[in-house]
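We treat protein structure as text, and this decision shapes the records that our systems exchange. Below, we set out a record of this kind in full and without editing:

***
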Amino acid sequence: MAPKIAFTGPAPKLILGIDIGTTFSGMSFCLLEPGKLPEILPVTRFPAQDHIGGDSKVPSIIYYDASGRARAFGAEALQESVVEQAEEEGWQKAEWFKLHLRPTGAAIREDSVPPLPANKNALDVFTDFLRYLFGCAKAYIVDRYPNGNARWIGLESTIEYVLTHPNGWSGEQQSKMRSAAIIAGLIPNTLADSERIHFVTEGEASLNFCITNGLATDPLRLGKGIIIVDAGGGTVDITAYRQVTTPKGDSFEEIARPQCLFEGAIFVSERAHDYLKCKLQGSKYQEDATHITKCFDKNTKLRFRSTDAWSYIQFGRPSDKSEEFNITSGRMKLASDIVAGFFKPSLDAILRSVTTQCETSEVPISSVLLVGGFAASEWLHSELKKHLNSQNLEVFRPDSHVNKAVADGAISFYLEARVSARISKHTYGIEIITPYTSTNAEHVTRAGTAFTDVSGVLMVPKKFSAILDKDTRVSATKEFCQSYHQRAHDAASLRAVSLGVLHYQGEDKNPRWTDIESENFPVLCTINADTSEMAKTLEPQQGQSGTYYRIDFDVVLSFGLTELKAQIAWIENGVEKRGPAQLAY
């Protein structure tokens, strides 16, 4: 079900949605033409994968040679000839590289993520893969349309890109992804062109896909909440929504704080590998543990069912036999409860998250929609249905195309922007100093850190000033403002303002001091603003320690969109003025 409104722009425009996943990546596009209805289409051809059609995705893999040059991407990196050459020449493989971009403090076992190739960081690899995908999209689109090269040349300078990322990512990760787009050549490095890069969470992209394709619309229409479980290779993104009807039409709101779990399909395989390494240790099959795990991952994992008494991994030759390890004719037999143990931590984490969403939601939730590559797991699907049905939650899983939900949904997000309100994931604010009060016990305990500022007033540092509280519903257009000031001996020192925006990650509902749980106050970004015009209007003030200057301003944050926006606002000659603020991550 494509959007029903014809494009009204003056000239054609290309929208490209890019979903770089932990294990597989995909792209969708939409060529907007004046007077025509938009149509969302997948990119279905990649080098060495041309035979795969429909909703194909490409493996997120790069091989680098000894000099650090990228030599093979995607399906090419899986070809036997390439693997052989890689072994002979000492190439290094980059896989699961997306997880190296994860936020600091993410709940993930460090040794579960393969290291990056030597002399490569996460941005390097992400950039190379983004450049590869862009080339694939260009080749596919040029071939699809008559006079394709000329058409591409006319479109390229105005392409709008929508990049997807897990629910748990924010400004720092978005900034790195935008840098990758610039380095990869998708856009020039200008402020105007940077606006052509858009971001959407995988959870929200999945909602857009579901709505566009008419999935789970009945409960939403009836005013009930739904939970989208986007189960991918690396992460499981869980988001709850409700439908809101207004005179302007229907929109959707988050009704609970979205969650991001590092419990995707790869971690099932990791647990299988840990088990096999331990089980086969000291045997002649010890060195085969990694190969057996790959066979499990490719052929056994998604087909495994809770009703199976045994699960089989075909990995070797007919001559491979071992009664001790249940190996017959190159096939290892594992008891169902053992294999279920590989899946259970992921299942348990999803169930806990769904329960939390239901408990904190402002409206009753009736349905859970399971999408993503990991959704194809028969065991995961059946176990979720069993547990959630007992909680009066219906579980739906689209019959097909679940692996292109995010890329298609990214385009839908750009075309229709259905989500009108989101729930803040953290408490956001800045660190300030505050006048010392001898009757305030919190101030007295910090008396040793108090100091006299340029105005001669005794001040206490490390005060946290909240601008937006956690779990607040934020509309797409709402701004959050807080007033601040800075003082200096001379006006020239106030020609620029630089403030660190913090996001509190602890459980305190009213965090007041950054020296308590200091590890839970990471800097989200730094706002750098040019206040030179305002500084010219400052008048000297007399303080206890002599003359000083004071600048008053508001920090204005907008969290309703999928990317943090910030500005510095001030009053000049009775008129509010705003300076563009640059966010430095």
